[in-house]
Amino acid sequence: MTDHGAHAFDFIHGSWRVHNTKLRDNTDPRCEEWVEFEASSEVFPVLRGVGHVDRMDVPDPPDGDPFEGFTLRLFDPVAATWSIWWSSSRRPGHLDPPMVGSFVGDQGVFLADDVVGGHAVTVRFEWLAGASPRWQQSFSYDGGQSWKVNWVMDFSRRPGVAGGT
Question: Which domain of life does the UniProt lineage start with (predicted)?
Fold first, then answer.
């Protein structure tokens, strides 16, 4: 079982292959076309373990040029919550609003309000910790009454790389 506090994300440290399944245009609430692509991820702790950095490289996405993604995750010990910020080379200089939440057991849920593709949305990240972690993103266009999954990442350790098996 995952620690509910500062160590809740320790499972993701290391080097990963990331299989992505996402809606071709996750900014369009009507899109139903799914695409798949591969990425790699390197995750390491910072700030003496109360945070970590995740660099994701996507060399051949189905919807444009290669890109690099960056995630910063920080634990707030007073609130007992994690905040997650995302940025990518596709939107230089832009940092998405923080997703805020926590883990219960091996499942983490993180929420934020944003505007995506001109639509007001509530964004939900769901993490399933473990040896083969899974991340899933959903959007709600109705204040959280219903959710539409638009991106899923399945992680597997990169063998022979520091942090891998």
Answer: Bacteria
Structural class in CATH, domain 10-157: mainly beta
**What's the predicted TM-score (pTM) here?**
0.90
Which segments of the chain have a pLDDT < 70? 1-4, 161-165
Q: Whose CA is closest to 148, among 162, 137, 157, 135?
A: 137
What's the whole-number average pLDDT of the chain?
A: 92
Which tokens sit at 26?
Answer: 């996750």
Instruction: Please count the other Cβ atoms lying within 10 Å of the Cβ belonging to residue 23.
Output: 21
With beta carbons less than 8 A apart as the criterion, state whether 82 and 110 touch.
Answer: yes
Output the six-digit token pair for 137: 């993103």
